[in-house]
Amino acid sequence: xxxxxxxxxxxxxxxxxxxxxxxxxxxxxxxxxxxxxxxxxxxxxxxxxxxxxxxxxxxxxxxxxxxxxxxxxxxxxxxxxxxxxxxxxxxxxxxxxxxxxxxxxxxxxxxxxxxxxxxxxxxxxxxxxxxxxxxxxxxxxxxxxxxxxxxxxxxxxxxxxxxxxxxxxxxxxxxxxxxxxxxxxxxxxxxxxxxxxxxxxxxxxxxxxxxxxxxx
Length: 216
Prior knowledge:
The structure is a single chain. The protein has a domain of about 55 residues. Helix content is about 0%, strand content about 25%. The protein has 1 helix and 21 strands. The strands form 10 sheets. The protein has a 3-stranded antiparallel sheet with strand order 19-20-21, with no helix packed on it. A two-stranded antiparallel sheet has the order 1-2. A two-stranded antiparallel ribbon has the order 3-4. A hairpin with an 8-residue loop joins strand 13 and strand 14.
């Protein structure tokens, strides 16, 4: 409690406000009331030591000082997390790694970052997966748009424009067990077999001796 003025009456003593504290007894000026550091707060007045200042919880931070309410503790944004207590800057909110995402605010662990879904990719710090463009797909945990490749039956520059293969054209996939032949809007899976080697037709010439009649 802080005493202001020269009066010895308890009723004349005024409390340091919420968000502040003072270790000085019989003080005569409000200047002895110290602000709780940013990242901390108090909800009650008349606090008499720094330990009375409460730290913002994990997944939050506060730049406010003095702070007389927990409402000044701001949750880390989606796509991030923080395990720090009493954080006083948004920089303590760590981005989820590329290949993962986080839809929640105020996450306290990297475990909150979920692997990116197939058919999408996730750059660092995203709240939700970014869908691959039309007619492309990707594997789980993809980190960039370049991971999106053309679907079976489509051809192109993968992450950009993929168009359907035209009739009488064959698109080979990386899957070694099959080859896809596309004709307009349908496709057929065929087993891979080595290309047939067409035997060269050779005309056989008799090897017997020429008849004597033909030589006369």
